[in-house]
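Fill in residues.
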């Protein structure tokens, strides 16, 4: 089941596509604006391409020379949610002769080329070899943003007193929530505590809901650079709005948060890359992984290795039980298998993570779950935390106006806003560990990865 925020529509054109080639017809790229000024839009029409929701992905790249290799593009864009066969893309800032190539898969050669478009100069004024020195990337442009995110939060965030009223009068947890609410008065805190499955538990009991092990030392030197920091990022990203995130589930008193975060990322990749939102099995990963992970904890890296080798079965095939002593016997075949993975320390790399969650999709990440975090119901959460991390969640977006990351937790829909929540940038050590799980090597998306 997918979750969609009906109160806001945000369409981003430079993300993953889902197209199907029309059988028996070769696609062609037709320039509707063969001569444009720098900075204006190029109008490109694709003929012979049928909008669909099947497995084929397609992307368009811009080149400054007829003989340029496929990977030597000046700029590129992935198209999504096609409405018609015409696309308006920003022209390069530098004058020159350019052309487009169409690809139906990141790993394959071009299947179509456009004619030449002249940017910024009359015919004959430039030579075919006059390649621009600067290589601007296409913008990620929000087409519609119906409701201001701060106004939306204010509309849907109840006051702390309302959350307290949901607790029985004789419930001992009432005093705990009331105390937190009182300490927040007169501060800048903008989140609401309330009744969740973890409120009132002892520290020893809460630990059973965590489960992310310490970060391996050999990850400390990994570095990632974004494709082009001049590209415009959307101010708001929420993959729920693109029907790419399943509903929040309950891990129970088993430290399997790492499995839920990783499986959540794989489910999202299935929706983004294959246009199929599957409900996958966290139990399979919990009991079948080959790294010794269990209800006592795990990491993204070992989970990634298992999934790349074996793939994932559905939740229906191997339902979640919240125990780690079951036999690894799924009883059916894997329905999805990723190709690329990476784990790296992401603390204070906010810009990189915004590019990754925008271009790649939801990411499994770490944070430090404090006692107050266990009582989060709504708003933008913030709290102080000791060094390190203890819990894994799925990063599904961010909002610049709120100054917060959007996460999916695995403590049931009774935690947060139907299992989701906003975490202030930099709070509770969010993103100390980040994972990437997808079908496309980051290098094909223009990211530079440095591993010692």
């Amino acid at each position: 089941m997918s979750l969609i925020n009906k109160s806001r529509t945000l369409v981003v054109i430079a993300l993953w596509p889902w197209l199907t080639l029309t059988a028996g017809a070769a696609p062609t790229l037709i320039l509707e604006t063969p001569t444009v000024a720098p900075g204006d839009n190029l109008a490109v029409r694709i003929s012979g391409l049928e909008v669909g929701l099947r497995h084929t992905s397609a992307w368009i790249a811009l080149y400054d020379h007829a003989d340029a290799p496929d990977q030597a593009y000046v700029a590129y864009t992935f198209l999504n949610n096609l409405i018609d066969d015409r696309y308006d893309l920003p022209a390069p800032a530098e004058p020159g002769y350019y052309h487009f190539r169409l690809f139906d898969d990141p790993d394959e050669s071009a299947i179509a080329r456009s004619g030449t478009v002249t940017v910024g100069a009359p015919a004959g004024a430039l030579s075919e070899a006059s390649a621009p020195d600067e290589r601007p990337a296409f913008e990620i442009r929000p087409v519609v943003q119906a409701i201001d995110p701060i106004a939306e939060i204010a509309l849907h965030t109840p006051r702390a007193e309302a959350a307290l009223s949901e607790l029985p009068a004789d419930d001992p947890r009432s005093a705990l929530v009331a105390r937190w609410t009182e300490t927040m008065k007169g501060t800048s805190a903008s989140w609401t505590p309330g009744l969740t499955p973890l409120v009132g538990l002892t520290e020893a009991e809460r630990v059973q809901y965590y489960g992310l092990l310490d970060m391996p030392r050999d990850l400390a030197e990994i570095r990632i650079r974004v494709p082009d920091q001049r590209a415009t990022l959307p101010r708001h990203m929420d993959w729920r709005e693109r029907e790419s995130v399943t509903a929040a589930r309950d891990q129970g008193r088993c430290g399997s948060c790492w499995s839920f975060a990783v499986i959540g990322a794989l489910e999202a990749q299935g929706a983004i890359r294959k246009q199929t939102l599957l409900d996958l099995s966290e139990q399979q990963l919990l009991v079948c992984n080959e790294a010794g992970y269990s209800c006592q904890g795990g990491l993204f890296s070992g989970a990634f290795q298992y999934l790349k080798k074996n793939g994932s079965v559905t939740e229906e095939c191997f339902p979640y039980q919240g125990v780690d002593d079951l036999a690894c016997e799924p009883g059916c075949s894997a329905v999805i298998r990723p190709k690329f993975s990476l784990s790296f320390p992401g603390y204070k790399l906010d810009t990189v993570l915004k590019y990754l969650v925008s271009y790649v999709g939801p990411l499994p990440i770490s944070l430090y779950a404090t006692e107050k975090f266990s009582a989060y119901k709504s708003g933008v959460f913030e709290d102080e935390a000791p060094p390190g991390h203890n819990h894994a969640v799925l990063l599904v977006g961010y909002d610049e106006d709120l100054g917060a990351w959007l996460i999916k937790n695995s403590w049931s829909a009774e935690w947060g806003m139907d299992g989701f929540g906003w975490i202030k940038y930099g709070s509770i050590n969010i993103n100390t560990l980040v994972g990437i799980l997808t079908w496309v090597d980051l290098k094909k998306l223009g990211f530079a990865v440095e591993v010692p």
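The domain at 149-450 is CATH 3.90.70.10 (Cathepsin B; Chain A).
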